[in-house]
Design a protein that fits this description.
Helices cover 58% and strands 5% of the residues. It has one domain. It is built from nine helices and four strands.
Length: 196
Amino acid sequence: MDRIAAAGLAAALALTPLAAVAQPADSMTRSERIEKRTKGMEKRFERLDVDKDGVLTREEAQAPLTKVFARMDKDGDGVLSAEEIKTLRAAAEKRLAKRGDDKRGDDERPRARKDRFERADKDRDGKITRDEFLAQGLPWFRRADRDGDGKVTKAEFDALLEKMKSRAAGRDDAGPKKASDRADGGDAADADEDAE
């Protein structure tokens, strides 16, 4: 169970949907990374659209993150305490080291994780509430919801993906992405895979 929670934390707070890319990041162009990411996001839309009406509500989009948060919140108080966060970080680091997934330098990954936790902790109280966690996890939803009605239609979602592809095509001349670069528009959208 700790392993599942650690995986959920890593996925939900990593803010890098590109983490699952099999090809090394430094050998892919930005367009290739975005193309792979958008295909994954299209599948994610289908999975998250529980009622299959072609529209994602905020509740549908947040459901997997809510499950992940509940698994990480060991004492069930609705808050990830500093101790819970410390335990989850250690478990995630151990799991990644065991799998050999730590492609970044030894000091980069812990610093990047700390920064993600600090960003999630909006009120700077050293804890992450359920609301803070959920808010951190859906920037893609806010970007896609063009009319601000709290729903993302398939057309709005497709427009977001096209915008990502278009921006990526214009940036390919910058060269391959470095492992230390932050993913463009990354968020916790991959947490739904851990929640299933």
